[in-house]
Design a protein that fits this description.
With 144 residues, the chain is mainly alpha-helical. The chain is built from nine helices and no strands. Helices cover 70% and strands 0% of the residues.
Length: 144
């Protein structure tokens, strides 16, 4: 099966546009920063094997973003509650967090938006594994 670079970039761009639409923004840079922050937060919360299986369904470009700075010795991170989760996502967005997230509710909405976009591209079973790796407190943020 040949690797077609154009198809890979197209798939990555479509997923980013879908995330941006869910975030209700036309700013693809902002959508990309938020998507990266949520993806890497989810990655860090999961056991290594689950994190790798999750990544297998991402477009090639997003796999690179997902695994960037991944430290197997520090996962899965312990998150006690929804507030810790919100702060973890904020920290993953590093220098842009003050611009992208003015309120905690914006982080919660971003978390839900990313999951909404991923639900259209991933199998339900894979996203269910991700949800199960999150505390019940955090899972409730997706239902709100």
């Amino acid at each position: 099966m040949p690797f077609i670079f154009e198809d890979s970039t197209k798939d990555a761009a479509l997923l980013l546009k879908d995330v941006a639409a869910e975030l209700q923004t036309e700013d693809l840079n902002k959508a990309g920063r938020i998507f990266r922050a949520v993806l890497q937060s989810v990655r860090d919360r999961m056991p290594v094997n689950d994190a790798i299986q999750f990544a297998a369904q991402l477009p090639v470009f997003w796999k690179g973003v997902y695994f960037d700075q991944y430290d197997l010795n520090k996962v899965p991170v312990k998150i006690r509650d929804a507030n810790d989760w919100i702060n973890y996502i904020r920290n993953k967005n590093a220098f842009a967090a003050d611009n992208d997230f003015q309120q905690d509710e914006e982080i919660t909405a971003a978390f839900r938006a990313v999951f909404q976009a991923l639900q259209r591209t991933m199998t339900d079973g894979q996203l269910q594994k991700v949800k199960e790796s999150l505390n019940e407190d955090i899972q409730e943020l997706l239902a709100a």
